[in-house]
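ok new one. same drill as before - structure tokens go in, u give me an amino acid for every spot. 316 of them this time. try not to just spam alanines like last time pls lmao
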């Protein structure tokens, strides 16, 4: 028991000693801060005293030069309306005079004042309507159309004639050489001819002569003279253009040459599809696609070909 009391007293004593040392350290730190603040305050007082002891700044007076006096300019009086007003003639109505033996009565005459400018504010003022005046004059409308209008060629109904040129793209063919058939490959060729027909207005009937020629493999040369009658239907798609289609049938004279001669006569047919364009009132151009074929002969097979034809027609 005695030992425990002694231990407690010893701990209390040690704690008091430590707290006393810590308090002394705090007092020393506080004293150092106070001395620093005091020294700074002293330095500040010295600087203020130095500024107050400086001499005063002397005032400088600056005088500005006087502005020159403005000269007196006399005022000019301008009248409110300096435009001269033209004199207006007095309007006086001439009274009617009764008829006598010398002649009929003379009606009152009004002065001619049409050359004066009309007052837009008056009730009798009527602005000039250019549209109505132009539309009421048919000669003026026709003259304007002839001067600025675009001339559209008219299509003539009646007879026409023309010539054409084109390219031939034939299919491969064959000939009968006795007991065997000789096949050949076809190259491109040309076609040309002329035609004569009549336009009934939407329907055309024409007769045509054409000649085409192309070469084949193994020395084959193929040509034909065709006489065809054709019926065409035309559909307008504009003021100058039209679409046309039709069928043709006729007689073809076919000639196929190699070592031997394989020739014959037979029917021929074509299917036509194209467009037309009118250049002027007399000339027109047609670009047509045709599928052409002939009947088979004793010595040769059918001749089939695709054609692209450009034709120029003249209205008679």
């Amino acid at each position: 028991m005695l030992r425990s009391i002694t231990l407690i007293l010893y701990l209390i004593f040690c704690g008091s000693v430590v707290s006393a040392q810590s308090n002394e350290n705090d007092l020393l730190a506080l004293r150092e801060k106070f001395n620093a603040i005091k020294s700074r305050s002293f330095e500040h007082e010295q600087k203020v005293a130095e500024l107050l002891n400086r001499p005063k700044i002397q005032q400088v007076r600056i005088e500005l030069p006087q502005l020159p006096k403005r000269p007196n300019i006399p005022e000019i009086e301008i009248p409110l309306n300096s435009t001269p007003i033209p004199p207006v003639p007095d309007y006086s109505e001439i009274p009617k005079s009764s008829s006598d033996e010398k002649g009929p009565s003379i009606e009152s005459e009004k002065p001619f004042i049409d050359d004066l400018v009309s007052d837009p504010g008056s009730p009798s003022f009527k602005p000039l309507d250019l549209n109505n005046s132009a539309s009421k004059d048919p000669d003026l409308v026709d003259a304007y159309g002839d001067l600025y209008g675009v001339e559209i060629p008219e299509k003539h109904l009646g007879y026409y004639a023309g010539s054409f040129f084109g390219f031939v793209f034939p299919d491969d063919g064959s000939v009968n050489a006795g007991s065997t058939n000789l096949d050949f490959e076809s190259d491109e060729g040309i076609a040309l001819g002329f035609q004569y027909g009549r336009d009934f207005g939407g329907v055309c009937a024409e007769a045509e002569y054409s000649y085409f020629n192309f070469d084949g493999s193994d020395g084959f040369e193929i040509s034909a003279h065709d006489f065809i009658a054709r019926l065409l239907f035309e559909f307008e798609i504009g003021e100058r253009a039209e679409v046309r289609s039709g069928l043709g049938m006729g007689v073809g004279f076919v000639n196929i040459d190699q070592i031997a001669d394989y020739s014959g006569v037979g029917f021929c047919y074509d299917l036509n599809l194209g467009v037309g364009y009118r250049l002027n009132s007399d000339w027109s151009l047609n670009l047509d696609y045709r599928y052409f074929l002939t009947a088979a002969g004793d010595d040769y097979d059918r001749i089939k070909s695709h054609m692209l034809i450009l034709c120029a027609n003249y209205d008679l």
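The radius of gyration is 61 Å. and btw Residues 38 and 304 are 127 Å apart (CA to CA).
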